[in-house]
Amino acid sequence: MNDAAIDYAGVFQCLPGMVALLTPDLVYADANEEFLRVSGRRRDQVVGRYLFDVFPDNPNDGAASGMRNLAASLQRVLDTGERDAMALQRYDVEDPERPGQWQERYWSPVNAPVLDGDGKVVLLVHRVEEVTELIRARGGPSGSRARVLEAELYTRARELQELNERLRQSHAREREVALALQEAMLPASRQVGDRRAAVRYRPAIGALNVCGDWYDIVDLVGGHRIGVSVGDVVGHGLAAAGVMGQLRSALSAASRVAAGPAEALNVLGRYAHVVDGAESATAVTTFIDFDAHTIGYSSAGHPPPVLVHADGRVEFLDQATDPPLDARPDPMPRPQASTTYTAGATLALYTDGLVERRREDIGTGLTRLAESLARHRDLDAESLADVVLLELLPPGGATDDTALVIVRL
Known about the structure:
Blueprint: H1 8-14, E1 18-22, E2 28-31, H2 33-39, H3 51-54, H4 66-80, E3 84-85, E4 89-90, E5 93-94, E6 102-103, E7 106-115, E8 121-130, H5 132-135, H6 141-185, H7 189-192, E9 197-202, E10 212-219, E11 225-233, H8 237-257, H9 261-272, E12 282-289, E13 294-300, E14 306-308, E15 314-316, E16 321-322, E17 337-340, E18 346-350, H10 362-375, H11 381-392, E19 402-408
Parallel strand pairs: 13-16
Antiparallel strand pairs: 1-2, 1-8, 3-7, 4-7, 5-6, 7-8, 9-19, 10-11, 11-12, 12-13, 13-17, 14-15, 14-18, 18-19
Helix pairs in contact: 6-8, 8-9, 10-11
């Protein structure tokens, strides 16, 4: 049976469990038959209405926390694009037959995202299992024992939820520290000076997704020349930010004394061998000579820079590509290539967060970048950087860090 022959709407309604679909604004888009049956609601009382208008907290219980906990879980899914399983929740429900009367109910919810092609959350899957009877077992001596065990289970579940919340707060603090460290080590816009260049860094969404993307612009010895580089360290958090700082500083120093970009990456590759966490790190560096109107470049496993000529022709600088920094044990020289340009051209270096999307070939992202740069090539560097980020990054933010350098030539 092919996909076209499957009635997915019918399958959804027949799912053996309580499942509802919510919009990012927490409005019910749909609910299956089991959800309506167990909650005691009609479809017109649910679909199209705000979640917490349909199921508010019990106003007679000052300690009620179900609504707050559910809202926090759904927001985490929206922020991170990742599934969130909640601990057991007490969430009382108003008796549909007796308004003002509240039933004590216990639930085990799981919330998951539905993503579009850009990785943006477009719907929330809210699946709930009622465990009221498990928690409130009744009967003889065995029932008494069951109540004790189930009360213990509920207590442990609450403790687990509190522990998870503390862990999330710890990760959030680590994210803040990692961002501060990363931003402190990256050259600020004012350091770019009058080089007609713009730099941008956008962290990934989600508490754990601060990565090791970096960029650098340095003055080179001899003539009117600069070195422009970007790189990407595998990993997350403080460790990735620390490795990023070491590699950026090493390449910055090597570029000032190297004969060309390939030699600078050779030095960086040797250094990466002794840096824990530098495995599979990528980098690309360009040496721009404004007097000769040439660009020399070399890449260690990194997406190619894009050169947009003054007439709108797009050239990917992909003729000197080699494996990532720590991928080769041998000291063989890395390849190097060069190209020429005329005044009015634009060079863009970037990390993969700008062009990669889930379930999409990277070639599509590279084409999207090239078209955006060509279409807006007459803008100044600062405006062009802003437009490119606006057009290429998902509205809610990317799931990977993004670094971007624009140089007007």
